[in-house]
Amino acid sequence: QKIVNEQAKQTMPAKTREYYFANQLYSNVKYNPLATVEKMYADFRKDYKTSAYDSIIERVVGLKRKMAAGQPAMDFAFTTLEGKSMKLSDLKGKVVYLDFWASWCGPCMRELPFAKKVKEHFKDKDVVFLNVSIDEDMNAWKNAVEKHSIVGIHTCEPGGWQAPAAKLYGVQGVPSYYLIDKQGKFASETSPRPSETEELIKQIESLLN
Question: Of these four, 43, 77, 98, 201, which has the most CB atoms within 10 Å of its CB?
C-alpha cells in the first residue's frame, strides 16, 4: 500500500490525488483501530490543510472517536416488535450485542446460523441481543424474524438507512455489530461477527465476569 500511495503522490493530478487519499481514509475508518485512523487523519491534514472533503472526513473520524472502547454507547429510543417503547439505556446492567441488519441482506442471512449458536450459549445469561432492522418493508422484516426464528429484541424504525438509530451509529453497510458492556459503554472498537463464534463468545464472557 505504501508503494501505491507513493506512486499516487508522484503521478496523479492534484485533485485526483486529494480524492484518492480522502477516499482511502474514509474507507478505512470503520475497519481500523482508532490509533491507526488518527495517524491517517493527521497525515491527510498535513498534506491537505483545507480540503473539499473535510466535513465528510471529520464526521466519520468524529464518530469513530465517539465509538471507541470505553465510550458511552449513544442512546436511542425504539419500539419493539411487540409494540413496547424502549431505549438502549434501559438495557444497562446487561451485555448488549447490537446488530443492524435487513431481511434483504445476504451476508446478514448467512450470519444467522452462527448467531443462533451464540444466543443458545448465552441463554439465561445477562446478555441481550438487540436486532435493529433497516428494512423499509415492515412485512418483510416481520416475516424474516418469524421465518428464521431470530431470537432477541427486535425493532425496525421507518427510514431505512436514514432511520434515527442507523444515522446515529453511522451505519453504511449491514450487517454491522456493536458490543456494549454492562455499564452501557462500547466494549471494543470492532466487534466480532457471529461467524467469528469463538472470539465473540470469549469477548462476551469476559464482559460477564
Answer: 98
Helix (H, G, I), strand (E, B) or coil at 79: strand
- What DSSP element (H or E) covers 42? helix 34-47
Residue whose entry in the numeric block shows the C-alpha cell 418483510? 140
Q: Give me the phi and psi of 168, to 5 degrees please.
A: -60, -40
Cα(71)–Cα(78) distance, rounded to whole angstroms? 21
> What is the distance of C-alpha 107 from the center of its chain?
14
Report how many helices (DSSP H) and strands (DSSP E) the chain contains, helices first.
8, 6
pLDDT for 3: 73
Mean pLDDT by 10 residues, the chain (209 residues): 77 93 92 92 95 96 96 98 98 98 98 98 97 98 98 96 96 95 95 97 96
Q: Report the alpha-carbon distance of residue 111 to residue 70 in Å, rounded.
A: 26
Query: Which phi and psi angles does 178 have, rounded to 5°?
Result: -140, 130
pTM of the model: 0.90
Measuring CA to CA, how many Å separate 64 from each of 47, 117, 177? 21, 30, 14
pLDDT at 164: 95
Full strand arrangement of the beta sheet holding 127-133: 153-156, 127-133, 95-101, 176-180
Cell of 27: 474507507
pLDDT at 111: 98
Q: Which residues pair with 185 in a beta bridge?
A: 72
Provide the pLDDT for residue 190: 87
